[in-house]
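Practice problem: predict the structure.
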Amino acid sequence: MTGPVEYSIKRARTATHLMFLLGGIAVSSWAPMVPLAKQRTGLNEAGLGLILLTMGGGAILAMPFVGPLIQQAGSRMVILISGIVLSLVLPLLTITYTPLSLGISLFVFGAALGCLDVAMNSQAVIVQDRMTKPVMSAFHGMFSIGGLCGAMIFGLFLISGFTPFISACLISAALLIVVTTNYKYFLDHPEQEGGSKSFILKLPKGPVLLLGIFCLIAFLTEGALLDWSALFLRENRGFSISMAGAGYGVFSVAMALMRFTGDGLVHRFGSDKIVFWGAGLAAIGLLIAVFSPWQTTVLAGFLLIGIGAANIVPVLFSAAGKADKSSPELGLAAVTTMGYAGQLAGPAVIGFVAHSTSLPIALGLMAAPMMLVALTFSYGQRKASAGV
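Answer:
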């Protein structure tokens, strides 16, 4: 018979799964809105690119404050407020007609998403600690499922005859229902039981900084594939326009599937081996995808990248929640912020290197930092276990 403690942990786990799904749906719902926003605002590609930076900027500026906020109020309230804001802003992205209003809306949307990301990962760490077994990869798997489904759901609404605004409102209503009916099931943080801490911001150092660098590399790679893989396949490997997105599609599906097996793999082999072999496999996949002349082999390379990279970030987030024993929320917020910075900077870095060399070389060079993660993560883990 399940006791009240076990029941509360299971409810918290389910609620956290739903929050990760919510985050993925919200992000991917924005993707099909981009061409509509470009048409409404009259922006060219360069102007739209600058406006799109406001979303990442909002997330990066908000994230460092989430750790102290969680120490003060707990992740429950941060998830509730950021989830509500995220849901309310989503429909606004379909009715902004000026670059300024679009930029402001994206900034708030990104800030809410960043806060939700840190808070739900903080809650995931608590659930994992209470369950005494790895569950982080499955949480991130739910985010991947949401990412795969959000754009599809939005598209189906449009095909059914709904306007973009009504489509966004329907998704927003579903997200609001999920967050307002599930936030009460989240677990309290251990430090809340011993009293609130003061609001403190501090720079990452020691193992937290090292984990942040690893996370930056992992997100940088994902961001580079998101923005550049279709162009690479189209211009350098002769894929048709309709198939140019196949590489990222294969990568995304492989990542989502592997994340649902990741917890069992971490439990069986340990986080060190998962990161070592995962980052190594991702690096090999990058080299195959970029330098193979055959289209089938190129897609096999993207498959290997997805399989290898799938569980790196969940393991890093789990380690970040334990690296700073005195302030786990601050450590997790720092690592998450550095990860988002990598995802934001990745496309720009690839573009700069590609301009100086070529796009295949620029993407292929990403294998080097992934190998760095593979070879040095165990050192970071040993430092983290010793405390900051």
